[in-house]
Design goal:
- Chain A: This is Sarcosine oxidase subunit delta.
- The structure holds two protein chains of two kinds.
- By secondary structure, chain A is an alpha+beta fold.
- Chain A is built from two helices and six strands; from the N terminus they run E-E-E-H-E-E-E-H.
- In chain A, the strands form two sheets. In chain A, strands 3-4-5-6 form a four-stranded antiparallel β-sheet. A two-stranded antiparallel ribbon of chain A has the order 1-2.
- The longest helix of chain A is centred in the middle third of the chain and has 9 residues.
- Chain A starts with a strand and ends with a helix.
- By secondary structure, chain B is an alpha+beta fold.
- Chain B has five helices and eleven strands; from the N terminus they run H-E-E-H-E-E-E-H-E-E-H-E-E-E-H-E.
- The radius of gyration of chain B is 17 Å and the shape is globular.
- Classes of the chains: A alpha+beta, B alpha+beta.
Chain lengths: 86, 199
């Protein structure tokens, strides 16, 4: 499996560290325990496209947002997380 | 107190001494002349100002990309967005304080001169050898002169670039020099390459 890093180019998956779903957003500090439990533990398990955080540990050392299809592992897009967050 | 002077000793020197200075020239290994090495990381939002300042100071065209660019005795190797390895030929041991001051407010500069060992690989077999270690396309069409990459070779983090046609340099953390050399020797042998050192 190859991931096309926006900075480094096409790289083997072993250079990356996988983190998981990029969708959860940290709740406000006063959002309560239930909101934090959801944020920390609850994850969707979609059969299809998902945006995920990957870290290019053995490359440019940047966090990436990878749009991957869980059924085929086909990657539709890769962006730097710092740009995706804007 | 007497001044101490410790001559710079290349990390690969003891290994290079084991090679013959003559051979078929398909894989020629050497250590580049002593140079200063530092990381340069742009402060947030200061990329354009940093490029302008470095152009004025060093005459170098800064590229925010995985590229090797050089001007005079300064070279930059792109290692990530807004991050470079800066090389300076013949630099004094305390050289990094100067660019750190000159780029103050625009970039963070930290000396890495003693942290990295750099091996130069030349000859028609150099790209073949590197392609056995790095999981990237080393064909000159994909990795031309001026290309650079941060990757891993034989589980060892490596920064490599093509300096001029069929002349590559690889920077690894210095304490991995023996392990990296072991990989070079084994991989060269497995690919029918007999490394020689430059005379």
């Amino acid at each position: 499996m190859r991931v096309k890093c926006p900075y480094c180019g096409d790289r083997d998956v072993h250079e990356f560290v996988y983190r998981g779903d990029a969708a959860p957003v940290r709740p406000a500090a006063d959002a309560g325990e239930a909101a934090f439990a959801d944020y920390v533990y609850l994850r969707d398990n979609p059969a299809g496209p998902i945006a995920e955080h990957w870290y290019h540990a053995q490359g440019c050392r940047n966090w990436l947002v990878v749009e991957r299809d869980t059924r085929s592992h086909a990657i539709a897009a890769v962006r730097l997380a710092r740009e995706a967050a804007r | 107190m007497a001044d101490l002077f410790l001559p710079a000793e290349g990390a690969f020197a003891p290994f290079l001494e084991t090679l013959s200075p003559s051979g078929n020239g398909r894989l020629v290994l050497s250590e580049p002349p002593a140079r200063g090495i530092a990381t340069v990381m742009a402060r947030a939002g200061q990329g354009a100002a940093l490029a302008t300042r470095m152009k004025a100071l060093y005459g170098i065209d800064v590229e925010d990309a995985a590229r090797f660019v050089t001007a005079g005795d300064v070279a930059l190797v792109g290692t990530g967005p807004g991050a470079w390895l800066m090389l300076r030929e013949g630099a004094a041991p305390d050289w990094a304080a100067q660019p750190a001051g000159e780029l103050d407010g625009l970039a963070s500069v930290f000396d890495q001169s003693s942290g990295y060992a750099v091996l130069r690989l030349g000859g028609a077999g150099a790209a073949t050898l590197l392609s056995r270690g790095a999981f990237i396309d080393m064909h000159p069409r994909a990795f031309p002169v001026g290309a650079a990459a941060v990757t891993v070779m034989s589980h060892i983090g490596a920064i490599l670039w093509q300096r001029e046609a069929a002349v590559y340099e690889v920077a690894i953390f210095r304490s991995y020099a023996a392990s990296f050399w072991h990989w070079i020797a084994a991989t060269a042998a497995a690919n029918g390459l007999t490394p020689m050192r430059s005379a």
